[in-house]
Structure formats: C-alpha cells, structure tokens
Amino acid sequence: MTDRDGTKIASTGNNSRLEFRNVSMTFPDGTEALKEVSFSVDAGEFVTVVGPSGCGKSTLLRVASGLTTHSAGDCLTDRNSLGYVFQDATLLPWRTVQRNVELIAELQGVPKNECRERARQAIELVGLSGNENKHPKQLSGGMKMRTSLARSLVMKPSVFMFDEPFGALDEISRERLQDELLRLFVHEGFAGLFITHSVPEAVFLSTRVLCMSARPGRIIADLSIPWAYPRQHDIRYSPEFAEMCGKVSAALREAHA
Question: What is the distance in angstroms between the CA of the first residue and the CA of the last residue of the chain?
C-alpha cells in the first residue's frame, strides 16, 4: 500500500510505526542531504536523532511527513496518524489557546462538539487548563510549545515527530517540558521521533539515540538507553547519566575526527 506521492504505508500487523529503508535525499541543486539511512521506530519507542547542523536531521522528519519527497529508498509509515511539532510553535495569533488546539481536528472534519471536547482533554493533558481563552501573545515560550503539543495530541497520533521543539527555551523551561513530554509519552504510548542538538536532552528522553554523520547524513551509531519510564528529573545529575552522555558524544566525535 502506498501514499499518493509513492511513500509506502506500514502494514497494520507490523510493530514498527515508522521505518526508513536505505533512504537517500539529493536536492535539485545537487546537495546530498541523506545517504542510505535505515532505522525504525516501534510502538512505545522514543528515538532521538543527534548530529551536526546541516546533517539532514530535520529532512528525515520532512520525508516521513511528506513535506519532502526522498530520492531513493522507502519510508514506511501511516501519514493518517502523524503528529508533528515544529521548532516554532506556529500558533495562529488571532486564535485563542482553545481555538488553536482545535485547528487540526477542525481541518480533518471532526464535528464541532467533538473538536471542543478533544481540545479540552489535550489542554488538560499538557497542563494548560485555565488558559483556554488566552491568545499566543499572552503566553510564555513554554506555554506556546505546550499549546503546539496539545494541537497535535487531539488526533491521538500513533507516530509523534518533534523538530527541536525546545531549542529556543531557557534551560529551566526546557527541562520542565522534557519532563512533561515524557509524561505524555507514557500516557499516550505513541512512537516518538525527536530531533535535537542537545546530547543530554537526547539521553534523558529516549529509548534509543541515533547519531548522524555530517552531510550527507548517515546513521553512524544506534545506542540503547537503559532506564525504564517514568524517569525521575534528578537522573540528569547521576554518574550513570553522565557516562551515557559521554558515550553519545564519543560516537559523534569519532565520526567527525
């Protein structure tokens, strides 16, 4: 089975929710962004990709979502069940929190009363109850990202993709949203694919961390993170956490030596 642009859709009997098989991407100007990238994300996995700027991390998400058509290989997923959170919250300034969160369900033709109820539930899940009638200009950066998360949650995606959503936040807000995201991951059980430049963020969030080479991006390491969920905030300050961050950093340095 294939999507309209030729992207294959994963069969429902497969535990994999997102799979790249030898995916390569060359842009029209000849820039080779990705080269033979292969990995999968199973249901209940949270996989984070780290690598240098320009290595094709965000291109992976664009290929999976259909925003970019890859040059070779197969990307298997169900685009009818994708959530996508961008680097910017991309909220509509004239809509309230409630109306922004309703947007995707509204565009999908969900009845008005159901849109409202789904949005209410999502707003509660991300801890924004009481802020439904505020506009984006009245929100902090962290609250805007929570609104963006809630907007994608209304459709209960089986695959949730995140393109450096916390990169512009201060450290305290960033850690709080990492904690919140893991709570949502445990609660909702989606397959997560997260892009970041931060090694500690990758280690804290993930079941696996994938390290990418410089352009053209290739997977050079696939490291399992040993801790079960839920994860305590203070694990970030443990020797074991520092050791795991060291392993990821070493893999990245080795590739770029």
Answer: 42
The domain boundary, picked from 156, 186, 213, lies at 156
Residue 44's domain comprises 1-10+24-78+158-257
Are both 246 and 151 inside the same structural domain?
A: no
What size, in residues, is the chain? 257
Distance CA 214, CA 226 (A): 27
Distances (CA, A) of 218 to 35, 50, 55, 63, 242: 6, 11, 8, 15, 25
Please count the structural domains in the chain: 2
Amino acid at 104: I
Does the bond joining 230 to the residue before it have cis omega, within 30 degrees of 0?
A: yes
Asked if the structure places residue 177 within a domain, the reply is yes
CB 181 within 8 A of CB 229: no
Which of 166, 161, 168 is closest to 180 using CA atoms? 166
Same domain, 39 and 133: no
Query: Which of 42, 12, 77, 84 shows the shortest CA–CA distance to 190?
Result: 42
DSSP 114: H
Residue ending a domain, choose from 133, 156, 179? 156
Q: What is the pLDDT along the chain (257 residues), one digit of tens a residue?
A: 334 343 443 433 468 899 999 999 999 998 899 999 999 999 999 999 999 888 889 999 999 988 888 999 999 988 878 999 988 889 999 999 999 999 999 998 899 999 999 999 999 999 999 999 999 999 999 999 999 999 999 988 999 999 999 988 888 889 999 999 999 999 899 999 999 999 999 999 999 999 999 889 999 999 999 999 999 999 999 999 999 999 999 999 876 65
**What phi and psi values does residue 97 have, to the nearest 5 degrees?**
-55, -50
